[in-house]
Amino acid sequence: MEYVNLGNTGLQISRIGLGTWQFSETWGVTNYEIAKNIIEKAVEMGINLFDTAMVYGNGLSEEFLGKALREIGVKRDEIVIATKIPGDYLNPEDVFRAVKRSLERLQTNYIDILQLHWPPCWHNFPTCKYMRALERLVKLGLIDHIGVSNYPITLVDEVRSCLSTIDIVSMQYRYNIIERQAEEELIPYAEENDLVFLAWSPLAKGAVTGKYTLENLPIFSDVRRTDPIFHPENFRKIKPLVDKLVELAEKYGRTPAQISLNWIIMYSDLIIPIPGAKKPEQVVQNAKSVEWRMNIHDWLELESLSRNIRITYSIYY
Ligand SMILES: NC(=O)c1ccc[n+]([C@@H]2O[C@H](COP(=O)([O-])OP(=O)(O)OC[C@H]3O[C@@H](n4cnc5c(N)ncnc54)[C@H](OP(=O)(O)O)[C@@H]3O)[C@@H](O)[C@H]2O)c1
To answer: Theoretical Cys-Cys bridge with 92: which of 18, 133, 172, 202, CB 3.0 to 4.6 Å?
Structure first.
């Protein structure tokens, strides 16, 4: 496994993390033993960054993660737990209550990175009020670091200006070889400010793994049922890219998923993909998408194929 510095925190995180939204009804891994096997494999492969959130499975993901890490017996200071607080909980009083509950589910006395999952769009809590509450939790030792997710840049600036003695350490947004909007403003911002960029849905929810085809587009019973990526109108557009990923996978003796993840880590040293896994074999494969790099000509060919793809999001109505 490769590791990178988490800014100047002194922490080192694996070049690829494990996303654990899968441990929920939304994705279908609700059996604890399966989740534990996935986490155990991740640890075995050297992954030390675990991404979860209070809302995943209404707490189930945090609960499984905390229980498994404890049972596996990993040392607390050898792993980095990144959870998220939803925008709806950013009322200062709720911040304390929510973090306390999260710590209980995670069976730990501190969270390495508490990420703001999304802005309080419907509640309009004033930014500095909740940021001061979060900074208080850092001072109390319940949180080590703060990160943002799905925040527009202007609001990221505001969040940072509200902090008095600390700064945020990470930014988390959607980024994969098909959906590259983050390249416009977000990744350059992370690079300018030396912030780690955690890429969510790095496999485009499985669309770039080569196992789903237009002829064999499964009717998903999970969160993908209405995901625009899997709508035939969009899926048709990504076919040439997926064909190329399959071809390169054969060339390198890898899988299309590994090629896609390798493409992401080559885009920037600060991008850490956090793919989710539903089976232990998937996390093993995903861990092996680092420690090697594809040829730059192949990278460029993928880049130009993907640059021409325009996904339509206004697709169902
Ligand atoms: N901050 C946010 O708002 C936000 C939003 C979304 C996600 N996230 C985080 O990002 C993580 C990953 O994103 P995601 O879950 O949306 O999607 P993803 O990582 O792009 O795709 C995950 C899915 O791809 C398939 N897969 C994984 N590894 C594979 C492999 N090696 N070969 C073939 N198929 C493979 C699995 O589904 P199948 O086997 O069923 O195809 C898996 O459930 C989440 O777990 C979560 O932690 C954060």
So the answer is: 133
3-class state of residue 13 by DSSP: strand
Q: pLDDT tier at 216 (50, 70, 90 boundaries)?
A: confident
User: Does 232 map to a domain?
Assistant: no
Alpha-carbon gap, residue 2 to 13, rounded angstroms? 8
- What are the tens digits of pLDDT across the range 1-50? 999 999 999 999 999 999 999 999 999 999 999 999 999 999 999 999 99
Task: Look up the domain containing 74 and give its range.
Answer: 3-205+255-293
* Whether the predicted pLDDT of 83 surpasses 90: yes
Residues 6+ apart with CB under 8 A from 104: none
Q: Which atom of ligand 1 is nearest to the CA of 206?
A: 24
- 226 in a structural domain: no
Cβ of 51 closer than 6 Å to ligand 1, yes or no, is: yes
pTM, rounded to two decimals: 0.97
Neighbours of 251 (CB within 10 A): 12
CATH at 168: 3.20.20.100
Q: Is residue 303 part of a domain?
A: no
The answer, yes or no, to whether any atom of ligand 1 lies below 6 A from the CB of 26, is: no
205 lines ligand 1 (CB under 6 A): yes
